Amino acid sequence: MKNIEHIGIAVRDLDASCDLYEKLLGTGCYKKEMVESEGVNTAFFRTGEHKIELLAATEESSPIARFLEKKGEGIHHIAFNVDDILVEMERLRQEGFVLLNETPKRGADNKLICFVHPKGTNGVLVELCQDVK
């Protein structure tokens, strides 16, 4: 894993949260995107070399809706850049980690993504991200 790509934060109201984070970070949202496969709307902010991703559910059955129901708003995941997501997924499997995806899938911000089950990472949901070329 190369570096932190972004920190994902689950929110109930994307527009209100964008206003809040614009004030907090002193910068505007640079991109909003819907990821239908995950049932989520996203908004991205840059802060220095890192990004913050706000995630709001678009349907009650989405992973974000379930997260909000159980835990409320807050940090949902930490994402790391990888050069080759397939190689990194296999490395993690060999190390005994459980992956939530058998194969990478399309995520927001032009990425291929895969999640590592939080039961094996001390309760932290980890996302692998590879830029789509």
UniProtKB/TrEMBL annotation:
Keyword Isomerase on entry: yes
CDD domains: MMCE
Keywords: Isomerase, Metal-binding
UniProt xrefs under Gene3D superfamilies: 2,3-Dihydroxybiphenyl 1,2-Dioxygenase, domain 1 (3.10.180.10)
Entry keyword Transmembrane: no
Annotated GO biological process: L-methylmalonyl-CoA metabolic process
EC number annotated for this UniProt entry: 5.1.99.1
Organism superkingdom: Bacteria
Molecular function via GO: metal ion binding; methylmalonyl-CoA epimerase activity
Residues in VOC domain copies: 3-131
PROSITE patterns assigned to the protein according to its UniProt record, in alphabetical order: VOC (PS51819)
Short name of one Pfam family: Glyoxalase_4
PANTHER family cross-referenced by the UniProt entry: METHYLMALONYL-COA EPIMERASE, METHYLMALONYL-COA EPIMERASE, MITOCHONDRIAL
Family to which the UniProt record says this protein belongs: Belongs to the methylmalonyl-CoA epimerase family.
Protein name as annotated: Methylmalonyl-CoA epimerase
